[in-house]
Amino acid sequence: MQAFAGTSFDSLDSYALTELPVPEPGPGQVRLRVAATALGYVDGLMAQGRYQIKPPLPYVPGGEIAGVLEAVGAGVSTLAVGDRVVTWQLGGGMADCVVVDAADVDGVPGDLPLPVAAAMLVDYQTAHFTLFERGRLTATDRVLVLGAAGGVGAAAVALAARAGAFVIAAAGADDKRQAARALGAQATVDYRQPDWREALKACAPGGAVDVVVDPVGGDAFEPAFRSLAKDGRHLVLGFAGGAIGRLPANLALLKNADLLGVDVRHFLATQPERARQVRGSLFRRVRDGVLPPPGMTRFTLAQAADALRATLSRERRGKVVVVPQGGVADTGRLA
Ligand SMILES: NC(=O)c1ccc[n+]([C@@H]2O[C@H](COP(=O)([O-])OP(=O)(O)OC[C@H]3O[C@@H](n4cnc5c(N)ncnc54)[C@H](OP(=O)(O)O)[C@@H]3O)[C@@H](O)[C@H]2O)c1
Fold first, then answer.
1. What is the Å distance from ligand 1's center to 41 Cα?
2. CA-to-CA distance for 46 and 48, rounded, in angstroms?
3. Model confidence band, residue 29 (pLDDT cutoffs 50, 70, 90)
4. Atom 4 of ligand 1 has which residue's CA nearest to it?
5. Distances from the Cα of 98 to the Cαs of 60, 85, 292, in angstroms?
6. CB burial class (10 A; 0-12, 13-18, 19+) of residue 249?
7. CB of 236 closer than 6 A to ligand 1?
8. How far apart are CA 205 and CA 5, in angstroms?
9. For residue 316, what pLDDT is reported?
10. Does 154 sit in the ligand 1 pocket, CB within 6 Å?
């Protein structure tokens, strides 16, 4: 099989398409024929050894994987060859096939295309956990989403708007702000402008927000926190802006505000059944047209190097999705 593997974290140039033996599933494992692997900002960091988890080398990037089962190991009774599945791994998806633990695999409903399942798997689940489990979102909340056209940001806009909240999308380009409006944002701000907090005050009902969804950090962090109303919640997801923001602690006191960390991996690890229910519900809502599918930029496995670089580029539009050349016969078998 072909896999896009790297032998060093020093440079993305160490990654290349490589011929590897087809892996056999051990007891409790399954092998997927990869139909699509989605990549987020994290995958670009991980491939450079810059993420909090450093995978072993050689490393095959791509963690958000959808495919069709083509082999099951001993002791696997709940899954069968032909099942359409998704899994979130630390990597392995930029390949024709991958072996994973059966316990980490979830079914995909019929009629939901596998590339869509891969593209929404982590971002929708993360946004849902952020807004509803950590952020205690209600229909009367005003929500500011930073990086609102990014993977997690776009999912947060779509979910918060459908929950009835007033959503203000902060994004750094005209077409990104338009995309956020199409997802349900009622107002937008260009947070690359130095006076963007004034623009936010002008468009937020009452001049403040109750919830900030923050996957960006950096320079946007403190102005966003200062824009909270009393009892506001600022949710820290990551630092796509490149820097970890800082905050004078008195601001939390003045606002009676919560600064909340979000770690969706911890949620998945500690509440797997709850996570599975949420995931299933999100899949069905996208399949039924209640939630929009993520925007996607597709790459083949032969274009894997471009795909990986695209994850780190602010100019990219939509989720990066790698569909191995030739794809995979998607039988549409019901999960
Ligand atoms: N905590 C968790 O559980 C969890 C789970 C998933 C992801 N995350 C984190 O969430 C963050 C976003 O991930 P994602 O996959 O949604 O990323 P993404 O699709 O690349 O979106 C990130 C957004 O950040 C903005 N941005 C600002 N400065 C940037 C820069 N210098 N380079 C690139 N983008 C920049 C961009 O929007 P503008 O151009 O509009 O500013 C971009 O759309 C990452 O830090 C990731 O680690 C956290």
1. 6
2. 5
3. very high
4. 237
5. 10, 12, 28
6. exposed
7. no
8. 50
9. 87
10. no
Atom from ligand 1 closest to the CA of residue 191? 41
Atom of ligand 1 minimally distant from the CA of 312 = 33
6 in Cβ contact with 47 (< 8 Å): yes
Question: Which residue's C-alpha comes closest to atom 32 of ligand 1?
Answer: 314
Closest atom, ligand 1, to C-alpha of 239: 45
In sequence order, what are the beta bridge partners of 298? Answer: 321
Residue 116 structure tokens: 């869509």
Q: Domain limits of the chain?
A: 2-121+266-322, 138-262
Atom of ligand 1 lying closest to residue 192 CA: 41
> Which CATH class name applies to 138-262?
alpha beta
Q: Which CATH class is domain 2-121+266-322?
A: alpha beta
Ligand 1 centroid–CA 47 distance in Å is 16
Mean pLDDT throughout 17-44? 96
The tokens for 316 are 């990219």
With H, G, I as helix, E, B as strand and everything else as coil, classify residue 263: coil
Identify the helix (H) or strand (E) that includes residue 226: helix 221-226
pLDDT, tens digit (0-9, with 9 covering 90-100), for 207-221 = 999 999 999 999 999
Which of 203, 250, 202, 245 is closest to 224 using CA atoms? 245
314 lines ligand 1 (CB under 6 A): yes
Give the E-state strand segments of 162-256 in sequence order: 166-170, 187-189, 209-214, 228-236
Burial letters 207-233, b for 16+ CB under 10 A, else e = ebbbbbbbbbbebbbbbbbbbbbeebb
Ligand 1 within 6 A of CB of 41? yes
